[in-house]
Write a structure and sequence with these properties.
It is a single chain. The chain contains 20 helices and 18 strands. The longest helix has 20 residues. The chain is an alpha/beta fold. It folds into two domains: 217 residues, YjeF N-terminal domain (Rossmann fold, 3-Layer(aba) Sandwich); 277 residues, Ribokinase (UDP-N-acetylmuramoyl-L-alanine:D-glutamate ligase, 3-Layer(aba) Sandwich), CATH 3.40.1190. Helix 10 links the parallel strand 10 and strand 11. Helix content is 39%, strand content 14%. The strands form two sheets. A ten-stranded mixed β-sheet has the order 8-17-16-15-14-13-12-9-10-11, with helices on both faces. The chain has an eight-stranded mixed β-sheet with strand order 3-2-1-4-5-6-7-18, with helices on both faces.
Length: 529
């Protein structure tokens, strides 16, 4: 799904009306109805609902939602920040259809009246339809004063399109001066703020996209940004009945060293759980038995070890390399390797010896940072999965410089080196060689533990093994499913107790989850009740 700017969203609405004959009133009706249906499903216990409406089209969406909620039996009140005479166009038309007499709050003084205070105090849910995606901060006047009152209350707030006060084009993680939100319902496509910002101050509270009638052909963007969810061709597609293990690839995991057998075991287990037909873990001989215990389905291959339990460069002889690489389809290299000079020599020579697709993580990235000339796709699939510290070493920058301009850095690095770059962090970025970027919105703070990256490496290797013709979609889906599995796991436990292996245990549910649920909403953050 494309990510749009506010201007591109307006262009989409215009094209829908002028080119495809859908009236703007129909779009507004669908938007308001979508908000109302979401509230009825996800906040079913809320009976007294107050809709906060501005004078523009966002307020018009609010008028429609108010009407629909009242027709559904809710006690609905509307607070209009202005006068009815101020309304124009579609908002004025929807106000006339609402058939609810609003309480008026044209200025800050009116907010201090007892009727308004009682209205706010008694509400069980607020709909924030004050200003929408066309707004540029800061909020002023009565809208800002109402924000302060709403933010001091405890009743949940559902934002219509975007929390009032956010710039829809913002790439900031957090902004000051916006309305709080416990859920966000936007329309047609996510905007930059929905995928970059912490709009709900939580990884678990929902942000959903509702279709309202714009055809796909009307949704155009120059950002080259997409949402990273699993596509219909990848992960969601059922396997054919005549399947066999050979159809789904053979992943070779080269990982581990003395004291770090768990990294190799977790990557291998994740590759199996994510659907690879076969997985072989090639690890130093001293840790082979430990890694093999992770699951009986895992095949193992011993590698000669040096004096410190590291992979030795003696594994580079022709016979050993042939045995290592024979009939493999994807390599996953790095978790727990260590950075001993012997291992570094082995890694660099191995990359020269094969053009198999390769997923590189952890110590493999740190060793490559000392040999940047080796970072090149050059006709082969190369996927790098750095966290900000590793990215700083790969790019020769400080962590602060990486974090200051993640999107541009990821785009340029992927294009320059012709690799797929998975830059981990809040809203992990997946930058592809063609300069397209997918933004992932799944995952939660419980993943901030050792082993999470090892699990992701295994998942990505399995996805590339299964979908070698659609690598970009496979990697996007792998990142999305990893975060989604963690979100599903946290539903059953606290994020403090989440282990990396818990995400593997929930991969089955993640594969079965459909972001586009029966109500037609695309869940880009959070999970349905």
């Amino acid at each position: 799904m494309k990510i749009l700017t506010a201007d591109e969203m307006r262009a989409c609405d215009r094209a829908t009306v002028e080119r495809y004959g859908v009236s703007s009133l129909t779009l507004m009706e669908h938007a308001g109805q979508a908000v109302a249906c979401f509230v009825l499903r996800e906040f079913a216990e809320a009976k007294r609902i107050t809709v906060l409406c501005g004078k523009g089209n966002n307020g018009g969406d609010g008028f429609v939602a108010a009407r629909a909620l009242r027709q559904a039996g809710r006690e609905v009140r509307v607070l209009l920040l202005g006068f009815a005479a101020d309304l124009k166009g579609d908002a004025a038309a929807m106000y006339e259809q609402m058939e609810i007499v609003p309480m008026l709050a044209p200025d800050e003084v009116s907010l201090s009246s007892e009727p308004v205070a009682a209205l706010l105090r008694e509400s069980e849910l607020f709909l924030d339809a004050v200003v929408g995606t066309g707004f540029k901060p800061p909020l002023r006047g009565v809208a800002a004063a109402l924000r302060d009152r709403i933010n001091a209350l405890t009743a949940p707030v559902v934002a219509v399109d975007v929390p009032s006060g956010w710039d829809a084009d913002s790439r900031e993680y957090q902004v000051e001066g916006a309305y709080r939100a416990d859920a966000v319902v936007t329309f047609t496509a996510p905007k930059l703020a929905h995928v970059c910002g912490n709009l709900t101050n939580s990884a678990y509270k929902p942000i959903v996209v509702a279709p309202i009638g714009s055809p796909e052909e009307a949704i155009e963007s120059n950002l080259r940004l997409t949402w990273a969810g699993a596509s219909k061709k990848v992960a969601e597609a059922p396997r054919p009945a005549e399947s066999n293990k050979g159809k789904y690839g053979h992943v070779l995991v080269i990982a581990g060293s003395y004291g770090k057998s768990g990294a190799a075991a977790m990557s291998s287990l994740a590759a199996l759980r994510a659907g690879a037909g076969l997985v072989t873990a090639a690890v130093p001989q001293p840790i082979l038995e430990s890694v093999a215990r992770i699951t009986p389905e895992l095949m193992t291959l011993p590698l000669r070890a040096g004096g410190h339990g590291e992979i030795s460069s003696s594994n580079l002889d022709r016979e050993a390399l042939h045995e290592l690489l024979e009939k493999k389809t994807v390599l996953a290299i790095g978790p727990g390797l260590g950075q001993h000079p012997e291992t570094e020599k082995f890694l660099l020579s191995l990359l020269d010896a094969t053009d198999l697709p390769v997923i590189l993580d952890a110590d493999a990235l740190n060793m490559l940072a000392r040999h940047r000339e080796k970072i090149t796709g050059g006709g082969r699939v190369m996927v790098l999965t750095p966290h900000p510290g590793e990215m700083a070493r790969l790019a020769g920058l400080s962590i602060q410089e990486v974090q200051a301009n993640r999107e541009a850095l990821a785009r340029d690095f992927a294009a320059k080196h012709q690799v797929t770059l998975v830059l981990k962090g809040w809203r992990t970025l997946i930058a592809h060689p063609d300069k397209c970027i997918a933004i992932n919105t799944t995952g939660n703070p419980g993943m901030a533990k050792g082993g999470s990256g090892d699990i992701l490496t295994g998942i990505l290797a399995a996805m590339v093994a299964q979908y070698p013709q659609t690598v970009a979609e496979a990697v996007n889906a792998g990142v999305y499913l990893h975060g989604l599995a963690a979100d599903l796991a946290v539903r059953e436990q606290d994020e403090h107790t989440l282990l990396a292996t818990d995400t593997v245990a929930h991969l089955s549910r993640a594969f079965r989850f459909r972001a586009e649920d029966k109500g037609g909403y695309l869940w880009i953050q959070g999970l349905p009740q």
